[in-house]
Design brief:
The protein is built from 19 helices and 6 strands. The relative contact order is 0.11.
Amino acid sequence: MIEKPWEGRFTEKTDRSVELFTSSIHVDKRLYAYDIDGSIAHCKMLAHTGIIASEEAEKLIEGLGAIRREFQRGKFEFDHSLEDIHMHIETRLFQEVGKVAQKLHTARSRNDQVALDSRMYLRDETRTVIRLLTALNAAIVSLAEEHIDTIMPGYTHLQRAQPVLFAHYLLAYFEMFMRDSARFCDCFKRINVMPLGSAALAGTTYPIDRHYTAGLLQFPEVSANSIDAVSDRDFMIEFLSCASICMVHFSRLSEEMILWSSTEFGFIELPDAFSTGSSIMPQKKNPDVPELVRGKTGKVFGDLMALLTVMKSLPLAYNRDMQEDKPLLFDAVDTLKACIEIYTAMTPKLKIRKDRMYQASTTGFLNATDLADYLVGKGMTFRESHSCVGKTVGYALNHGKELHELTLDEMKSFSPLIAEDIFSVLTPEQMIQRRTSFGGTARENVRAAIQTARQRLADAACP
């Protein structure tokens, strides 16, 4: 067997520097199992269609099985002169079973082979990501159920706005991560398409049965255009886009974990097992986990932008530039999974400081909107009540008081519609309980939302 499959065309050996520069084996060796699975299915199809003999197929499959075991035992030897995982396995197969190994590549190209390996890898990883997100959401729902009575200030513009249940806040992230799961499920449909049999770009003259191969590899769909099949990396770009959106959610959550664990907020305490200290300041307890997650978000964004840039000007069909897709994909997959797993482990161990949250809910005029709504209920238009309450807030600020600390006479000086019942309206508990609109923070709403969330998780189907 010649050292390289294209060597017959060339009069010079490949320069060693070129071998090192073009080699991708240090990256794509992690695809070995998919390459072997794809080769076994291709081999069975070749025998099924009579392109090779059944005895030859059996010998090839036996050899591929032996190579798989070498990988699993860590005994497989790599050589940069063989470039990629496909050539490594093909060369080793020749050493294992002899000349019959040269028949395995009949009716396929490395172009459709690498597309197949990448899709098989990514559909497995997408399933894993969806399962991990489901586990994270289960942890979020459990924490929400535990804190159905914990009141905290909700924010807009990072300014205290209105009180909400901490459980309601947590369920906001539940919704974000559920949408992430839905995006990955939808993306999975476009990943799960078999390109094998497209060959280099034009298909093949051999009487192959692509649907037979697809059945063996559990692909529900076969690519419809051979040129597109070998040059398409949309499925990777889409996955990276979904991963980037998911990392946005993690970054936002991380920002709040960092802020809330600070002395200035003091809403939560991160568990010691998920924090680090300072090399010089003994008192420090640093939120390194959320900080690193926040930082890793940029890596995943970068992977997406890099792949978009690789693909943006490539003429059809395959170009060697596309070899750069896998380091980006692998990095994003590994980073995303690590972030999901660390948050799933950390979330149940967060220490929630209910007293600090509640105290923060009683200052900052969070009940101003409720006073305005109260006046509307007494017959005032909302715009009038808005102005009236604004003046009341200004008065309270000048006198160093909160709205609920004003006397009834002080309040009535701004509107005679205000009566003794106003004070029961302005407590955080009452403000929360009155927000009964669907999706609002009223306790019964949130309790029902938790039950619905558990059912949604139970009904969630991984593709």
